[in-house]
Design a protein that fits this description.
By secondary structure, this protein is of the alpha+beta class. The protein folds into two domains: 83 residues; 45 residues, no CATH class. It has three helices and six strands; from the N terminus they run βααβββββα. It is elongated and about 60 Å long.
């Protein structure tokens, strides 16, 4: 029988929203200075707006039922990703991760070789103690022994 030994509820991150706004505005300003034809400028600006909307939906700033809102690890070291109280992805293995003070990026692989998932968790979007536990787990040498 498997039981959940770690669970992390993910909320909206203001730092990530600020980062997305700054990056997309910088790209728009750069394109304004580089592109001279109005048609290419309009196409590029539309693509930047679509990119901004996509990432805001991905990280819960606009309503999206597919956005990951909870991550859990069971007793067999399998990870589960939940979206809006429904199981989204199950039986994932943690392949690698990037750990910083401000955020953690988790890279998962699924049952099949083409199933790869990544998840960005910012420090201001989760509980401090649970975030500390996640960082300690990801930095442990025993985590990626295989």
């Amino acid at each position: 029988m498997t039981r959940i030994i770690f669970s992390l509820l993910i909320k909206r991150s203001r730092y990530l929203l600020l980062f997305l706004v700054i990056i997309h505005l910088l790209m728009t300003v750069m394109l304004l200075s580089l592109l001279t034809q109005l048609v290419w400028l309009m196409i590029a600006t539309c693509l930047i707006i679509i990119s901004f909307i996509f990432y805001c939906r991905q990280y819960q700033w606009w309503r999206n039922n597919k956005a990951i809102t909870q991550v859990s690890r069971d007793s067999h070291q399998q990870w589960l990703l939940y979206s809006q109280s429904t199981l989204r992805y199950s039986q994932l293995d943690l392949c690698s991760c990037v750990v910083t003070i401000y955020g953690v990026i988790l890279y998962f692989k699924g049952q099949r070789f083409w199933q790869r998932y990544s998840l960005l968790i910012m420090a201001d979007s989760v509980d401090d103690e649970a975030f500390r536990q996640l960082r300690v787990y990801c930095r442990s040498p025993k985590t990626f022994k295989d």
